[in-house]
Amino acid sequence: MIDPETGVPSLKAIRADGQRPSAKRLEQEIKARMPERSLMGIVARTAYWVEWWRRFGPPSGNEPKLTDPLGRYVIVTFVKGTNMGPYEAARHIPGVSGHELSYVANKHFSIVLLNEAIADLVNAHARLDISQAWGDGTAVAADGTHMDTYLDNLLSETSVRYGKPGGIAYHHVSDTYIALFTHFIPCGVWEAVYIIEGLLKNTSEVQPTTVHADTQGQSFPVFALAHLLGFDLMPRIRNWKELTFYRSSKQSEYVHIDALFGEPGKHVIDFDLIESQFRHLMRVAVSVREGTISSSTLLKRLRSGSRKNATYAAFREVGRVIRTVQLLRYLSDAPLRRRVTAATNKVESFNRFSQWIGFGNRGVIADNDPIEQEKAMKFNALLTNAVIFHNALDIAEIVRQMLEEGWTIDPEDLAHISPYLTEHINRFGEYSTHELGIQPDAYDPKLDVDFTPLRDQDLTAAGLGQAA
Tens of pLDDT along 261-277? Predict the structure, then answer.
């Protein structure tokens, strides 16, 4: 509804349809059949299957001079990913010392190598048929979650929202539930500047074109840069009273929705400025794409830049155009609003899942070095992605068993099954290393389920959005 006097729109909350009885039965059956797993065993099996551990080694590039590099890298990933300290972990893991774990983590793991290992798991996950139940990899959601730190370090700030010191773990989570990229940023930073950064630094085969975000993604410069780089930014829209719709010219009037645009003749896009500065805008976009300047640095400058600067003003005008179009799409396309909500819910669920895995030290990041804090987030993302990948394989195997037993599996029901399952995973107790020497059988990525109806639904919804 649009208030005819103020022009402020209001959207009624879409009532959830609720989980279908067939989907609920399928979920209960899958959960009941999930085999009990140890967290160490999950990491070891994914290391054998995907061989992400081969990314790591000494800075010299030589072969690691370790008796069992696979075993050591698996243990270090487990220890650092769960946020346990190396010396505390050594008390529970036979055959290793705290000094050895600390040395390997510092000398054989870097941020670059961790990103490569994360990309290996993302690529392997994308090749699983079961991942088609959740999405096609073309959309990603970006959001952050607070991480506690000690107060006496350079990156720590007191969060206004949470009222305690820490930083923000900022994740880009694919529509297939897996994390494509992770940052660790200060609490006081404007989160929106990292929306584009994670997309550009993602080196996996999954290259999304649509990015969803929470309300911090509504800024003009972010809309402009995303559009110039070829991304479709569609954040969750709130606070309609604070948002302005812009007209294409002073003479423009719009049947039925003119009240949205306020007083006639005001809030008009300066297309002449955009045209005169377009070459400069594209030059900046190419510089960001090629890595000459980071998108976060650029967006910080644009946010605080002089309004008298023509390039800044042109960015602002492009952002006004794109945001106005996206606001109109959001108002007119109910399926689009559902997709945005579903995407942002996935990244919030990922935040909870990754924190469940990073249970050590009560979730407090003990390192005071910003590089080590960033590595801690990468370790956690690597371990979380390994669990997601392994859960997806277990779900697929159970579905195969059910099909053999004569069950009819509806792909729409399967789409409701999240790989963020935890009930079957044992996190605590003595961490036995016997599974490190057990090479598993090859996994089967194929699944005899037709996911075409899900893609047809997406195409229909996309058509509605374009028509609107």
Answer: 988 888 999 999 999 99
